[in-house]
């Protein structure tokens, strides 16, 4: 995030409001948020979102869509021109919210020459965790993010990008947040680290933490998110529940190949597909692509194709359902 939040004399006074506990169950409420950096150039336009407590929520969209700016507004680092953000019912710059929030920024700075252990101990103290638990909790979190023990007492200026990313994640977690904001968490991480992160996110979710991920890594988002908001030109263009069978984006794409040279006419294929609630997407020289609701839908389609006389040789499901958001028709009505 490149812009600091300007001084807001009329924002709710963070230090003066001191509730004993904020109701994290309220989740995150973004209402009518608009933001410009320069006059006439709107980066966010009337954004409305409710991120439910305990869900893992993804934010995707093309470069410059306003995702990082929204993150800044949700974290109380940028101030919207209009609209409000509430985290657990409180403004994002409220001290209580800061205690509840962990943040992994896209670009981390580790220029103080601290070791990983010292860096994390510093953030443990910033998060006001009990001093007598510091040693143990620092080690627990270094282990949790899979940072090699041999690196714990090394100068972080000598760390690789992936090691810094793991340490950054430990920093976001060490305060035991109820809301975890991750900006491009897989950046620079090797495949083993990505798998580790996925397991870690599942574990964090099982503890009821609300996780918000801003990422271009569609495959990862698809695997860990409950819902995803697709951003374009500062607006939420689509909000998809990845677990819902009725979501158009969560329909599966099935690629079918046939034996021999003879296939059926496209009109006939489309009719057969329609009868079993599938849709013919396109045909190539040696394969057909269909949209089906789920695995049962795929099974019904294959049976119907065989019955219609297509010598089906293989069928496979395409990965990358979220990629269809980036297709010209937004993945809708395939
Ligand atoms: N500090 C700033 N000053 C002026 N314009 C800015 C500033 N920060 C971002 N912008 C502009 O706001 C728009 C949205 O930027 P933002 O970083 O929020 O998008 P993004 O969706 O996160 O992009 P990316 O995927 O590339 O990270 C862009 O046109 C960007 O140039």
Automatic annotation (TrEMBL):
Biased composition (Polar residues): 1-10
Keywords linked to the UniProt accession: ATP-binding, Nucleotide-binding, Transport
The keyword Transport appears for this protein: yes
One MF term in the entry's GO annotations: ATP binding
InterPro entries the UniProt entry points to: AAA+_ATPase, ABC_transporter-like_ATP-bd, P-loop_NTPase
This protein's record includes keyword ATP-binding: yes
Positions of the ABC transporter domain: 28-258
Pfam family, one: ABC_tran
Region of interest: Disordered: 1-24
Record field: compositional bias (Low complexity): 12-24
Assigned protein family: Belongs to the ABC transporter superfamily.
Name of the protein: ABC transporter ATP-binding protein
Source organism of this protein record: Archangium lansingense
